[in-house]
């Protein structure tokens, strides 16, 4: 009898068709078009005390980016950040406007046991993006936190607490 129920359940599952609605209400609205900007952009900028090169990918849902550079400390410690910005409120004929986003990666350097050490962290940001088919210019203010750094002696050099992050990037399309 148990085999019949299992067989019946198997046939019910395999013969049931599932049709997905194309307009999924859980996906964000696609606000950027292919004409808005180049799909791939490269540029330069600064984030807090990090000078960096950046690569940006413009897709219908926003802008994904990677920043790689060096912190302006004694050792020029390398750092990397990644993030994504979603167009929240557009203000012009181009896709200029306010974007909300998230970021993660290296947020600053601190002296730990007489060495410069980078702090990993992340946060959210609010950006104003000037976007057209030739360039992307971004002004950003974020709030986040970095990991706690402790010396070998137990002294806490940097605590996990909220911190502001300012950023500016200028990119051109490929």
Describe this structure in words.
Keywords: Signal. Residues 1-19 form the signal peptide. The chain is mainly beta. It has a single domain (31-173), classed as Beta Barrel (Porin), CATH 2.40.160. The protein is built from one helix and ten strands; from the N terminus they run αββββββββββ. Strands 1-2-3-4-5-6-7-10 form an eight-stranded antiparallel beta barrel. The longest helix has 14 residues, at 2-15. The radius of gyration is 23 Å and the shape is globular. The termini are far apart.
Describe the structure using short key phrases.
174 residues, mainly beta, Porin, 8-stranded antiparallel beta barrel, two-stranded antiparallel sheet, 10 strands, signal, Outer membrane protein beta-barrel domain-containing protein
